[in-house]
Design a protein that fits this description.
The protein contains nine helices and four strands. By secondary structure, it is α+β, with helices and mostly antiparallel strands. Helix 1 runs antiparallel to helix 2.
């Protein structure tokens, strides 16, 4: 069966998820995380993408990016894979791909879901019961977005900037978003969107995407729900 084509739009945020083969680890020590982030930054510079949020878990990654050109999303991911996979294989004596097929992704409506996806991504280590606060996890963008440490690879989005009139007020407002977890309904909608490639937003947003592309994008998820998705 041919692969289902993917479609992205210039200037529209994308939530990207990439999982290890059979959910096996893709990071083994600190140097691996650092190496991935190095290539992530280089790829963003080369293909003119803004990275707004990320988390690197032991066996998968989440990214929230906005491309200047929609077609550059796939090139961006290929660039990272063609450098990180050989690095892991050479270092640990492995062969073949370390990833579970192609990455999954969905377009994100800015006004309704952008901040929810940022929280979904940066809350990931907490949901995985690795720690009690996202501030305790080193390999995510929370430290930057919550004002603890600047990361050169992160670019703020206008939705984030609208949280306050200056950096201090934006950081405080963003921190307050993490005083409570995302409700289960929103969690499921976000998970279903990236799992199926369905645009994450209201019906008007989905119609706008499909009219712009002149194609149906994504699908309604069927069958039994996944037992647990991070």
């Amino acid at each position: 069966m041919p692969r289902k084509p993917r479609f992205y739009l210039s200037g529209v945020p994308v939530h990207i998820v990439h999982r290890g083969h059979s959910r096996s680890p893709v990071f083994f020590e600190d140097q691996d995380y650092s190496t991935y982030l190095y290539w992530l930054r280089k790829a963003a510079e080369k293909y003119d993408l803004s990275i707004h949020a990320f988390v690197l878990m032991t066996n998968h990654t989440h990214l929230l990016v906005t491309p200047t050109l929609g077609e550059n999303v796939s090139l961006f991911m290929q660039y990272i894979g063609r450098r990180y996979v050989p690095y892991i294989n050479h270092k640990y004596g492995k062969s073949g791909s370390i990833w579970e097929g192609r990455y999954k992704a969905c377009l994100v409506q800015e006004e309704s879901y952008f901040l929810s996806v940022m929280r979904y991504i940066e809350f990931n280590p907490v949901r995985a019961n690795m720690l009690e606060s996202p501030s305790h996890y080193r390999w995510s963008s929370f430290c930057h977005n919550a004002g603890a440490r600047d990361l050169k690879l992160i670019n703020s989005h206008p939705i984030y900037d609208s949280l306050g009139v200056d950096k201090e007020s934006r950081v405080k407002a963003y921190q307050e978003l993490f005083n409570y977890q995302i409700d289960q309904t929103a969690m499921k909608k976000i998970s279903d969107a990236w799992l199926t490639g369905t645009p994450l937003g209201n019906e008007h947003f989905r119609q706008m995407i499909e009219e712009t592309l002149s194609k149906k994008v994504g699908q309604d998820r069927r069958g039994r729900p996944s037992a647990k998705v991070f």
